[in-house]
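Cross-check.
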Amino acid sequence: MRAKLFMLVLVAVIPSALLVLVLLIGQYSSQVTESRNQALARARALAAAVDNQILQVESALQGLATAGSLVDGDLSGFHESAAGFRSVAGIANVMLTDREGKLVVNTMQPYGGPLRQLGETSPSRVVISEGRPVARTVMGSITHVPVTVVGVPVTIGGEVRYSISSAISKDRFDKLVADQRLPDGWIAAIVDERGMIAWRNIASEQFVTKPATATLRENMAREREGYFEGKSLEGVDTVTVFTLAPVSGWTMVFGIPQTEFHSNLLRSLALLALGTGLVFALGAAAAWSYGRQIVQSTSALVQMSSELARRDDVAMPELEFREARQLGDAMLRTSRLLREAYTEVAHKEERLRALLNAAIDGVIVIDGDSRVVQSNAAACRMFGWSQDEMEGRLLETLLPGDDCGVRSDGTKFPVEASVAGFESDGQAFRVAIVRDITERRRVEDELLRSNIELRQFAHAASHDMRSPLRSIIGLLSVVSDSKDGELGGRGPEFVARALRAARKLDRFTLDLLTYAKLEGPASAPAPVNLEQTLLESLALLESEFEDTGAKIAAGPLPMVQGHASQLLQLFHNLLGNAIKFRSERPVEIRIAAVPVEHGWEITVADNGIGIEPEFREKVFEMFQRLHTHSVIPGSGIGLAMCRKIVQHHRGRIWVESTYGEGSTFHFTLQLGADA
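Predicted model, tokenized:
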């Protein structure tokens, strides 16, 4: 018996030994991968720190790029502000270079003194030519030592006028790399976007500003990060890891000498192999003694696992050794946990079912064949089927369209439905959320009818009011033209006031009638020449322009898609307001058009009295006036009419204004047929 057990041990040990050998090889491979990944993690951390350092300098310089002194051409003032900003922002120096590559400001030198000019390889020339921030390491023209220069463009009037630049000292990169706590002997380098070495911890005087190895550049061109085996610039065999910094485009490189890299791994594997051999030896000796106990205990554990699979109550059998008893205890705990898990799952299913049945919207779960597998109470009520009748039905029989549902009696009703997919146990399902919008459609239809009736009423009321108003105005005009002596006392004054009030009411009624017409259905849009429309509007306002001496400057206007009469009204109202709300200055109006996505943006600017900020939205509302009628006449409908016209053209209108200086009205229109 013992001989057979011994043979059993040998049969078990030999495959186990082979398995251990495979595991050792796998462990070695895993340790190699882990070491590379740790090095990559350090490279990523360094990349983030370098990006942050460069971004800090770029942000500080971009703050200076918006200085008003640059816009005004005050270089002396910029020198003063840059010198102060340099100490606040913590940057070493600020230099300003013009478009010709000439250094015009250096905060390390007094303004106006002679300045040493930059070389042809200066990053400032790249900043100006390409119009983007640039960070590069170059050989200093004065110190003759490598220096990292960060430059940003200064854009004035839509073009790059200057480059603002500053330097990052080597000490800062030294600290960033020191924070990574690299092992002794590692070669660390930072390579800029051109493949040139910007920083190096070993032999930096020899290799900084020189190209990286060809092998490294080839790997950098193929992928953002990775590793390879090769030689360093000194000729040392290394395992090289690299990663690209996402913001600056610089690459962090760590070279680990291969002798150090592999010797540490082999040493740890040797210890692991020795320990494994000892364990196998002890195991073989113990197996001879415990073989029979293992068989007995294993049989008992198999019986326990069978009971566990059947969800039966599991009892602890008599086991011969401690490990088997521990496994038995674990199986007992697993049995209790499984029972608790089954109970919790049942409770969750019950709560989910209650939640679905409490939802006011219908919820339907569909399988991969588009058949219903589950539905809540709201869905059953909505479609008129029981849950059993809903199960197995094709979704298309319930929802033949995105906005239509079919009840059990065949009647159709409007719905809103959304469908999303999910997976469960490797199977694809979809869940549909359905809402019956019959009542909402009824309310919308009633609201539409009410709006139509309201427009008809406003149109009829405005039209009917104008007829007696014209009669009143005519009669008052006759009385006003009669001799003052016939009225006596304050009669002429009262007649004049009544005539003004009647004309105001007539104007208000006419505006209200025009606004009501905008609410009605419009004809199909057609191409409209805005330049012709502007000329027609100016003809209507000819007397106002002559009386006020207003001047207008209009650039080329496009062809748009719309309604000519409404756009004529739009220009008429905006130009009339520019004259009406004028200041003591001569009236100047500027009209321009710029292309935007799917259309044009038109601006009408004036130099009038302007609009205070709190009233810029209010002016587009009906009957909202910022001045009394005695100061500036009007009905308070004109800008509301403008907004309605622009909305009819699927655009938007807004105003920008500086109180006391003038206003600029912006509105957008769609492209014309020939655009």
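Residues 32-261 form a domain with the Beta-Lactamase fold (CATH 3.30.450.20). Confidence is low (pLDDT under 50) at residues 627-631. Passed to J.P. for a second look.
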